[in-house]
């Protein structure tokens, strides 16, 4: 066994260090690449008051929806609420705080956290409540807005258009996310934590792992160090602290978000 072997015996052992109140970045895009085994293991603990950053919050009974149903999540930073009725109900009922963020901005806030960049300017959100403030973060039980987003700093920068002309445009300042723990899922990984992701699951999983001070990865296929060509590595092991190998049954346990058949396509 290597001196830097990062493989843990089980998901339950791997998530044991997560505490109530922690900020949590969770990978996945829709239902692709969701670390459901680690989420289920976390759900078997008594951890609560989690501040989650993720593209979405799963669906009812799957993914982060499992933790949401148990009221273990107190705040969500996400770009998408749809597909989860319980998420929408808790948000509008004042049970969970939600910071809606443009999808690209969310991705960059995670990447910035992983690369040591405290903040950055972006065009996304300028002229909207994203920049101007007033976006509802929390409602009370009667449906009244009780917390809103603050206004953000906006500065003009000179940018070059495709035709080569230069113009000054306003940009909004966004801050990196402060993430205690990241949960991700990879198609392949080695004992040093080098990971390979499959298709759209690569969208947010690498960024979440980069952002976490503690990154835990469940992998569908575990290989020995050196078996992954360096050119094929999507996320270097320096960003990953714990690896959990999935069983064949766990690998096959995947949901289809929207089933499309020939009959529905011809309607």
Could you explain the architecture of this structure?
- This protein is an alpha/beta fold.
- It folds into 2 domains: 7-118 and 176-252, 3-Layer(aba) Sandwich (Glutaconate Coenzyme A-transferase), CATH 3.40.1080; 120-134 and 149-175, no CATH class.
- It contains 9 helices and 14 strands.
- α5 (103-115) packs across α7.
- 40% of the residues are buried.
- The mean pLDDT is 94.
Provide keyphrases for this structure.
single chain; 267 residues; alpha/beta; Glutaconate Coenzyme A-transferase; 2 domains; three-stranded antiparallel beta sheet; 9 helices; 30% strand; globular
Question: How many E strands?
Answer: 14
Assigned CATH architecture of the largest domain: 3-Layer(aba) Sandwich
Largest sheet: 9 strands, mixed
- Rounded to an integer, what's the Rg over CA atoms? 20 Å
- Reported by name, the CATH topology of the largest domain is Glutaconate Coenzyme A-transferase
* Distance separating the two termini: 57 Å
